[in-house]
Amino acid sequence: MNCKEVMDLLPGYIEDSLEKDLHDEVVSHLCKCITCKEELDRLISIEGMLSQVKEEEAPKYLTLAFQKKLEDERRANRLSITERINQKHIPLLNLMRVAAGLLLLVTGGFIGYYIQPVGNSSDEVSSMKQEMVEMKNLVILSLIKQESASERIKAVSYIKEISKPDPKLIETLFNTLNSDRNVNVRLAAAQALSKYTDNKEIARGIVKSLEIQTEPLVQIMLINLAVQTRDNDVTPELNKMLQRSDLMDEVKIYAKKGIKSLSI
Questions:
Q1: N or C: which end of the chain has fewer CB within 10 A?
Q2: CA angle at residue 192 from 47 to 170, to 5 degrees?
Q3: Would the CA dihedral through 227, 231, 232, 234 be positive or negative?
Q4: How many Cα atoms occupy the beta-carbon half-sphere of 126 within 13 Å?
Q5: CA 229 to CA 199: how far, in whole Å?
Q6: What is the reported pTM?
């Protein structure tokens, strides 16, 4: 199978709709061909960027008019956004619309007003930012449970955009990496975790994941990530991996290169 044939099949591979024989041929080719593997990574990244909401900085000061409306709303309902969502079980589509609406409200809803310094505006902005973080986390945790692989890749992409995700989101990435039924979602999770390999706990989690993975492309990506961490457990884990009878020859090559690199 040549590169053109493989690239034509990549959309079907991402959607996990290929017959087993074709799927295995594509995997075998991707393990050997850097160009096609880079194209796969590009397509997965594009999939994750779809409908992605970018965080924007809120204005420095809130207007008096908006502060009054905000205070009226708080008096009417003391529940946080998160509590209201949990109580009402808002569907995912509506949840995402609310998140997008709040972003617009915070970032663009004050155009046309004269912005004036107000004593408590900093606290108000901090409070709203915290609620926006909670909202984004809820969107991520909802998306990651969806049937569609594309939606789950979006969830992983959202986490990847967060500079310092909380432990629950990191746990979500590892759960996805180790148990998602779609190989491309697992690859996306591995890509997201690659940002945090300088964290020792995350590095150990990546190494531990090696013994769980059976898909060659995920194995190769994790071998490369594990070697980058230079954790003491990497070489023993790679040696143990080489003893597996089901390990593809292409994966063995990467494992041996990794061991050699760590010994230098």
A1: C
A2: 125
A3: negative
A4: 4
A5: 9
A6: 0.63
Cα–Cα distance, 150 to 182 (Å, whole number): 10
Q: Please check the confidence at residue 181 and state whether its pLDDT lies above 70.
A: yes
Cα dihedral 41, 43, 47, 51 sign = positive
Q: Which residue from 56, 66, 55, 57 is spatially nearest to 121, judged by alpha carbons? A: 66
> Residue ranges of the domains in the chain?
1-49, 64-143
Which pLDDT value is given to residue 51? 41
What's the token pair of residue 260? Answer: 């050699």
Amino acid making up residue 72: D
Task: Give the closest residue to 154 by CA, choosing from 225, 82, 53, 18.
Answer: 53
Q: What pLDDT shows up at residue 71?
A: 64
CA distance 80 to 16: 40
Hunting for tokens 């050997």 — which residue is that?
A: 32
Q: Record the tokens describing residue 3, joined without a space.
A: 């590169």
Type of residue at 139? V
